[in-house]
């Protein structure tokens, strides 16, 4: 075997190792991003969240982005409030009528952002935070709002 053949062979092995390591790192990042944090507070199925929101027993807040609301609609009875807003906690406090102990259920796409935000809000003094871990699209917790066949309203209607 010539020196150039040996070098190409060694580089090929290195390339395979580097690509494999990159793939594993990508998988790890994906799993981190799609795995919700543990949330010590309550959790509701999408059916329970819908029923409680319809009866006024819980304030259901869809924390996704406006483009997500436009894509799927918003669960009937939910208030859209983009979690990226700088004034998110203040607006949520306003929606809850200033009652930080009011039951507030958070829903996102797959339960990852809602669990993380639920922890942050609990630390900020909201004591009635509840997670909807299935989300709108489904997760390990269940099929999600859309596949459960629960009603949705168009983004524009929800803002009225």
UniProtKB/TrEMBL annotation:
Domain Rhodanese intervals: 54-154
Gene3D superfamilies assigned: Rhodanese-like domain
Superkingdom assignment: Bacteria
UniProt-listed SUPFAM superfamilies: Rhodanese/Cell cycle control phosphatase
UniProt xrefs under SMART domains: RHOD
Matches recorded under Pfam families: Rhodanese (PF00581)
Protein name per its UniProtKB record: Rhodanese-like domain-containing protein
Organism classification: Bacteria, Pseudomonadati, Pseudomonadota, Alphaproteobacteria, Rhodobacterales
């Amino acid at each position: 075997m010539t020196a150039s053949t040996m070098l190409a062979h060694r580089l090929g092995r290195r390339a395979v190792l580097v690509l494999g390591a990159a793939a594993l790192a990508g998988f790890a990042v994906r799993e981190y991003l799609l795995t919700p944090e543990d949330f010590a507070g309550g959790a509701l199925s999408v059916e329970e969240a819908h029923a409680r929101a319809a009866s006024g027993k819980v304030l259901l807040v869809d924390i996704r982005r406006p483009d997500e609301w436009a894509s799927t609609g918003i669960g009937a009875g939910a208030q859209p409030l983009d979690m990226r807003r700088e004034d998110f906690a203040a607006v949520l406090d306003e929606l809850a009528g200033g009652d930080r102990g009011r039951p507030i259920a958070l829903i996102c796409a797959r339960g990852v952002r809602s669990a993380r935000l639920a922890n942050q809000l609990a630390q900020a003094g909201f004591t009635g935070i509840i997670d909807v871990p299935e989300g709108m699209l489904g997760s390990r917790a269940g099929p999600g709002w859309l596949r459960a066949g629960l009603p949705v309203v168009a983004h524009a209607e929800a803002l009225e």
